[in-house]
């Protein structure tokens, strides 16, 4: 037993845990080590898939001490068995109807799918090409394949990301909302970065996976865990609202910052270390 026993801390990675200032990144690492040594449970909730998270954070399986939420809640990765223990798949036949409307109105939109065997890109544009050329995306197996071919293959699909200029993304969000109204809200759409809109299954989210982890830990250890969550973007919002204490870096987008109970220093100043300091001061 330690001062953080019963505390489950889940953090977004990009824009929250990571920092371009090495010494401040190390603050996060050291704070997490101390948090775990005092009984805390720590993990990540990221939009990244396994290969891209591993490329940018090779030690993620050692930093976390429970399962890692990937693909924005579509997949749950067990750091001990080194395998996925839970996944939500997209109904691709149904989702094709949305893509048909999207292509009719904004045919220049880039589209990429996260699949069981890597990434599939049926529609490329310059923005998506630039994204895929990122050094941390190059680690992902990427195939060009039509949606029809992907459906025929029977491969599991966990999420879709549509990329375009921000003003076009705003209109795509409207298209997505209209489509969802006609499909019993089968999909969960959220902005994951300035030029990207993501779709996963409606019951998949960082929030839903965070609650699964919390329930598992409570049952496993016979301790009622409190969820502490921190993130900076739309895909973190519901998890932050659900948490016993939700936080965001001061650099988070405005509505996420407003929804959070705590605003920490910026991600580049050691936001997670600052949050742990606040948890220790005010909540344990």
Descriptive notes:
- 41% of the residues lie in helices and 24% in strands.
- With 284 residues, the chain is α/β, with parallel strands linked by helices.
- Helix 2 (22-37) packs parallel to helix 12 and helix 5 (92-105) crosses helix 8.
- The protein has 12 helices and 14 strands.
- The two termini are 13 Å apart.
- The chain has 2 domains: 7-87 and 205-282, HAD superfamily/HAD-like (Rossmann fold, 3-Layer(aba) Sandwich); 92-201, Hypothetical Protein, Haloacid Dehalogenase-like Hydrolase, Chain: A, domain 2 (2-Layer Sandwich).
Features:
284 residues; alpha/beta; Rossmann fold; Hypothetical Protein, Haloacid Dehalogenase-like Hydrolase, Chain: A, domain 2; six-stranded mixed beta sheet; five-stranded parallel beta sheet; 12 helices; 14 strands; 41% helix
Tally of separate domains:
2
Query: What fraction, in percent, of the residue positions are helical?
Result: 40-55%
Main beta-sheet strand count, sense and barrel state: 6 strands, mixed
CATH top level of the largest domain is Alpha Beta
Architecture per CATH nomenclature, i.e. the level-2 architecture of the largest domain: 3-Layer(aba) Sandwich
Individual helix count: 12
**CATH superfamily heading of the largest domain:** HAD superfamily/HAD-like
Structural class designation: alpha/beta
Strand order, largest beta sheet:
8-7-6-9-11-10
C-alpha end-to-end distance: 13 Å
Q: Might you state the CATH topology name of the largest domain?
A: Rossmann fold
What is the averaged pLDDT score?
Answer: 94
The H-and-E topology, N to C, reads as: EHHEHHEEEHEEHEHEHEEHEHEHEH
């Amino acid at each position: 037993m330690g001062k953080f026993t019963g505390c489950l801390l889940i953090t977004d990675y990009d824009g929250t845990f990571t920092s371009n200032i090495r010494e401040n990144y190390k603050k996060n690492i050291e704070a997490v080590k101390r948090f775990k040594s005092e009984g805390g449970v720590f993990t990540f909730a990221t939009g990244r898939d396994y290969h891209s998270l591993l490329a940018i954070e090779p030690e993620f399986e050692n930093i976390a001490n429970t399962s890692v939420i990937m693909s924005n809640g579509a997949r749950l990765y067990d750091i001990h068995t080194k395998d996925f223990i839970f996944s939500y798949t997209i109904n691709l036949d149904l989702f094709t109807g949305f893509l048909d409307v999207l292509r009719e109105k904004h045919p220049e939109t880039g589209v990429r799918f996260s699949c069981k065997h890597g990434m599939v890109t049926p529609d490329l544009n310059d923005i998506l090409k630039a994204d895929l050329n990122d050094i941390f995306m190059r680690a992902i197996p990427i195939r060009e394949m039509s949606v029809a071919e992907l459906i025929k293959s029977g491969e599991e699909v966990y999420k879709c990301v549509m990329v375009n200029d921000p003003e076009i993304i705003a209109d795509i969000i409207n298209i997505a909302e209209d489509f969802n109204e006609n499909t019993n809200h089968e999909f969960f759409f959220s902005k994951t970065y300035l030029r990207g809109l993501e779709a996963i299954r409606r019951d998949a989210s960082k929030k839903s996976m965070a609650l699964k982890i919390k329930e598992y830990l409570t049952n496993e250890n016979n301790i009622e865990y409190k969820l502490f969550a921190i993130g900076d973007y739309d895909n973190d919002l519901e998890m932050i609202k659900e948490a016993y204490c939700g936080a965001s870096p001061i650099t988070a987008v405005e509505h996420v910052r407003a929804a959070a109970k705590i605003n920490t220093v910026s991600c580049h100043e050691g936001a997670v270390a600052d949050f742990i300091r606040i948890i220790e001061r005010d909540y344990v």
